[in-house]
Amino acid sequence: MLDPVKKEYLENGGERFIVCAADQLELALDEFVDEYGEAPDVYVLSEVEKEVVGWKAPKTCRYSAEKPAYILL
């Protein structure tokens, strides 16, 4: 279940997140910590898309052309 604060953040157009394919999760974790200075919450992207009505996730992984599996917030 998505944290209510993070859900509201996405609903309001928040851009501080990374979506990635399963095989790129470690890279995404490292980049998130480097970029934002804190550890992210990691969610299964398909579950987040069900919870956040009207929000559209990027269609590809940040690091490859693969379909993303996770979102780091």
- Poorly predicted runs of 5 or more residues: none
In the residues, how many domains can be counted?
1
Question: Distance N terminus to C terminus?
Answer: 13 Å
Q: Indicate the structural class.
A: alpha+beta
Element order: H for helix, E for strand = HEHEHE
How large is the share of residues in beta strands? 5-15%
Approximate shape: globular
Major sheet characteristics: 3 strands, antiparallel
Helix count from the secondary structure assignment? 3
Strand line-up across the major sheet: 1-3-2
The percentage helix is: 25-40%
Rg on CA atoms, Å:
11 Å
Kindly report the average pLDDT value.
Answer: 96
Give the total of beta strands. 3
Give your account of this protein's structure.
The longest helix has 12 residues. The chain is globular and about 25 Å long. With 73 residues, it is an alpha+beta fold.
